[in-house]
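Thread: sanity check for a docking pose with pyridoxal-5'-phosphate

Original post by kr_44:
Hi all, I'm comparing my docking run against an independent structure prediction. Below are the sequence and the ligand SMILES. Could someone generate the full complex and paste the structure tokens? I mainly care about where the ligand ends up relative to the chain.
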Amino acid sequence: MPRRPGRHFLQLPGPSNVPDRILQAIGRPTIDHRGPGFGRMTRRILDGLEEVFGTDHEVFVFPSSASGAWEAALTNTLETDDRILLLANGFFAEKWGRVARGLGLEVEGLEGDWSLPPDPVSVEERLAADPERQIRAVLLVHSETSTGVRADVAGVRRAIDAADHPALFMVDAVSSLGAMEYRHDAWGVDVTVSGSQKGLMLPPGLGFTAVSPRAADAAARGGQPRSYWDWGAMRERNRDGFFPYTPATNLLFGLDEALEMLREEGMERVFRRHQRFAEATRRAVRAWGLETVCAREGAHSSTVTSVLVPEGSDAEAFRALALDRLGISLGKGLGRLEGRAFRIGHLGDLNEPWLLGALAAVEMGLGLAGVPHDAGGVQAAIDHLRDTSDGGGDP
Ligand SMILES: *Cc1c(COP(=O)(O)O)cnc(C)c1O
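Reply from moderator J.T.:
Ran it for you. Here is the predicted complex with pyridoxal-5'-phosphate included:
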């Protein structure tokens, strides 16, 4: 194989591109995780994470994939055989449900259309029909990375309140945290789950849970047998900035840097940038004459766009060709969307030329793969970016 010049375009909705600043931070020599200095860094990181989650309460960091944080959320707060209501509108929601089943929980899926966000009205109806209060938790995915649909977290909270139901509210913010507005406290979430490799711009390997006082109380009173994922042990050691076992020291160096980068840009600007890039991407898709999986205006995720290919085209063949000829990795269609959709990740450390390069590669790849489409997607994206440019991208 001849050398591939230029930079590989990792246009997945996670892992996202890891900026050089973070790679350099991770590349520092490993230090003693029980030594002086380490504790101060951890405390700074936990404070920074609280800001990103929008909480005044606790955030716990595990050396794990986000799936580990899914498990931590469930084992700390629920008993085996507890019933939970899963708002099942996509591949990642279903996957969280499988984790819950694996832990012996009774999972009731509230099936929903994959092209739409979960419907708060059916949540309220289902909870109102649970007079014995058997449902112990409601599980929702904020940005469903398989479909590119954004759920109305505050709306589902209102539905739970309208039914006057005590279930814990758990939200997966894996592909939204650090890129889309998220408010753990203000939206009344009990446990928010996230990971390092998406909006936070890090490599995979860290899982996060933000925990409300109610969830912390449930964990203190019960939960499943647990050790590695135990919030109590974590809280105890975190007080001074340490961990109950060897943490992922170098990833924490990277996280410290990532949080500093988010502070330097300012969260509002980070959110606005992701919104603009997502809108530019959708305009490109529309100009190509293609459709997004998300069928509701205003319910798109700002971090990923899931694009349907026309009947008779194979999204997997297109993706393979784009990777082989153009060196761009696009996300695959997941679950029932396999072969029918591909996903453009536009999250993390991204600027206009980078996004436009990615969209140009998609447009060219569609042509190479013979996927029927119209020209002009990149131009539509340029038009939007130009019309909304505020000069904030100056070096
Ligand atoms: C990526 C992702 C996950 C899974 O993360 P892992 O680190 O692979 O465990 C879960 N939920 C959503 C919404 C995701 O995008």
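The mean pLDDT is 97. Hope that helps with the comparison, let us know if your pose agrees.
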